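User: I want to check something. If I give you two sequences, will you return the structure for each one separately, not as a complex?

Assistant: Yes, each is folded on its own. Here is the first sequence with its structure:
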Amino acid sequence: MDVKQLRALLAIAETGSVTRAAELLHIVQPAVSRQLRLLEEDVGTPLFERGRRGMDLTEAGRILANHARRALHELDQAKAEIAPSPDVVSGSVTIGLLPSTSDLLAASLVIHLRELYPRLTVNISVGFGGYLQQWLEDGEVDLALMYEPKPSALLETAPLVDETLYVLGLPDKDLSLQGELALSAVAELPLVLPALPHGVRSLLDRACSLADLHLNVIAETNAMNVQKSLVQSGIGYTILPGVAVFDDVAAGRFAAAPISKQAVHRKIVLAQALTRRSSIAVRCAATELRALIKRKLEQGAWPGATWLDD
């Protein structure tokens, strides 16, 4: 039993197909089939059975897949704790950031990584959570910050930040940073929101569904600057995390009020693909990104957020 076999197991479990697993792992299909066959010979029992939707894990397969995720996580964690010398960290790493976090993190992260590892090339990709998850699974980014993603056997996630969400309106609206709003009050407001499958919209829709409420959405846009522009035009309100609104509130351009965290809040996680070997460059970038976020919170530069990874 080796790491390649465990990654093949998880890829087949997620995709339900040896063919799609091979595409995901960027290797030929016979290699995946061989790794599965060797793994089944090693444990002495079938790990998959044919179902209506493709290959389904057997009970033995489910047990092994759960242990495989933990084993791969522990291996990556051990490698992350072994600090390499700067001169051996080279190549490139692509980091995915959410639009609401990119202004706060991108420049500091690139500068810090370049100072620590001069031979490392850092690429930043910015996108919404659904796109980041797809890019991560497709190998277009090496690690990414995202809202809690939909469950996937292909991803390893570590919760980092819990964020309060804020209603943003014009300065003359009855909004205060000290005045928490119930979800029922938020649902009655004329709202400018991103469309599904945007993470914040999904959170709000799920919370309203559980509370038997309906959002009053009057316009949809997936561009944060357009959300703010439409609010500034006076047609309604929008909902954003604190990191995206506090400068505007301090400058007097908008007013804001927090939504009750009992009703809705979002967690940001650091995600990596379990199906790919984590390079030294990726592990170093992940360590520094985690440390940078913690420093930003300690400095008060990320309003409305609390650190989770301790």
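And separately, the second sequence with its own structure:
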Amino acid sequence: MNIDKFKAQHIAILDGIARLREATQGGIVQNAAHIAAHIIKLSSTVKLHLKVEDSVLYPGLASDANPRLARLGERYQREMDGIAGAYFEFANRWNLADRVEANPEGFRADANRVLRALFERMKREDTEFYPAIEAAHPPA
């Protein structure tokens, strides 16, 4: 199972999180339009990544001959539901500059909580989940 596309999408998502962090550190109110635009762009990448995971990766693992890998895929898919829901609530709440400007500290707190959870999940996938997949199905 080739997971290079998933790894590349992780890099794009992590880059988007880093860009949001930079814009926030430069001043939330001053960069509200930039922050909202980054959220919209990041959301499209996250949405694509989740769609491909749900349509290709998780179904492939569910039917894998290795029961440990199938269970691991099921666990990761279940866990992602809550993280994805929280992310998309965050994105819908803060994808307009006027909302970010009106409540910069609310945005900061929400971003810290939601983006940290997303970041930590992707790091866990990179260090635990993807290596397990590649160990069971080495790239050609």
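Because they were folded independently, the notes below concern the second chain alone. The chain has a mean pLDDT of 95. The two ends are 9 Å apart (CA to CA).
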